[in-house]
Specification:
This protein has strands at 15-17, 24-27, 31-39, 43-50, 53-58, 62-76, 81-85, 89-92, 97-113. The chain has 114 residues and is mainly β. The chain has one domain: Jelly Rolls.
């Protein structure tokens, strides 16, 4: 078993998806996900991209994000709006509830722990 995994998206066909219809607030957001690594215990690493739109989000997992391109607004229910763009890094913790609005197609690298 390899212990060093290079995160490389070449040759990986992305998974296509959308938010659940009942979560969409505006637009027609489309997702592409390149999952590069996963490990026992529910750990995933890869890249995700979304086109413009706004939808409700609810996190039961912990996620580290690093924005590669685009602009989005992540708003926590009853809390702040966070404007994120290329170069920004942040975590979303279990229990986070709010909205994600993509202003310009946004691409991020992620590490998720269930």
């Amino acid at each position: 078993m390899k212990q060093f995994i290079k995160i490389d998206f070449d040759g990986i066909d992305p998974e296509h998806g959308t938010p659940k219809p009942e979560r969409v607030i505006s637009g027609d957001p489309q997702f592409r996900t390149w999952n590069c690594d996963e490990a026992e215990g529910g750990i995933y690493a890869g890249m995700w991209e979304a086109t413009p739109g706004k939808w409700r989000i609810a996190y039961d997992e912990w996620e580290f994000c690093h924005i590669l391109s685009g602009r989005s607004i992540i708003a926590e229910d009853g809390g702040e709006e966070h404007h994120v763009a290329a170069g920004d890094s942040f975590t979303l913790r279990p229990g986070f509830r709010g909205t994600w609005e993509v202003l310009e197609t946004t691409r991020k690298e992620y590490v998720i722990r269930l």
